[in-house]
Design a protein that fits this description.
Blueprint lengths: L10 E10 L2 E11 L4 E6 L5 H9 L6 E6 L13 E4 L11 H11 L4 H14 L15 H13 L5 E5 L7 H16 L3 E5 L3 H7 L2 E6 L2 E7 H8 L3 E6 L10 E3 L5 E3 L6 H12 L6 E7 L3 H9 L9
Parallel strand pairs: 3-7, 3-8, 5-6, 6-7
Antiparallel strand pairs: 1-2, 1-4, 8-9, 10-13, 11-12
Helix pairs in contact: 2-3, 4-5, 7-9
Length: about 300
Amino acid sequence: MADGRSDAPEIVLRGVEKSFGAHRVLCGVDLTVWPGQVLGLLGRNGAGKSTLISIMCGLERADAGTVSICGCDPARRRVGDLVGLAPQDIGVYPQLSMAQNLVCLGAVEGLSRREARNRASEVMGLLGLTSQARQRARDLSGGQRRRLHTGIALMHRPRVIFLDEPTVGTDVEARRGVLDAVRVVAATGAAVVYTTHYLGELEELGADIAVLNGGRVVAAGKLNEVVDAHARPTVRVRFAGGADPGVPGWTSAADGYFEPAVPPTDPGSAVAALLSQTASRGLVLDDVRVVHANLESAYLAIVGEEVTPHAA
């Protein structure tokens, strides 16, 4: 998927299993992530995404299977110098300024004071936070704290970056800063694993996709490949006055529209059949829209669950 960026992947998982007591969380996960690749890791709440990330970071051990991070087994060798992790829960020092937070965490990761200062300036610029450098973290907005939290994971220029819901609860400006930063670090060769319930972000990033379901990766590939394999366009119609066509197989959608319960292979024929069945009732067609397949419709087809943006 990296299209020649490197001969060796940064992440290789084969047959990874993990249980907590009698509960099997991961049931043979296979995954490969290359340098410069942005991978959107998707799945229901409780699908095992956080557990999988913990295993890749060396915070948990797999019960079975093999894990390679930049050629190292995180169960045998600490990989903190190779990976950057920004979990969903924000972790910053509220009494320190933004710049101090970054410099301190850079020092923890082994940067010299000069290196940490220079890198902190780079990271703040990357995330659009330069003007807040001297503000205490406790005085930052929620979106600014979220970006600072993400920036900490970037300080030591890790080869692999894990971002868990990096834009949850943020405004448009903060979201844009995070997405721009992801593009930049991927362009410099970092492998990025990005979990989110905002599927449009992955479309903006042109990310590759892996969907966890039932403890396994059940769909993976380039975004367009996943969409083409699991979703197809549908059609929505609206009748004057918001009238309900009352035809079996058609369900209510948003804003007074109705759509087929199952996306049809031929949307035009589906609409023609609907109009034929409603003609005797004198219903007046107000609007027809073709709804193109996207990542959300593919995700729904794969896991059968509505996307909840603020879910953990």
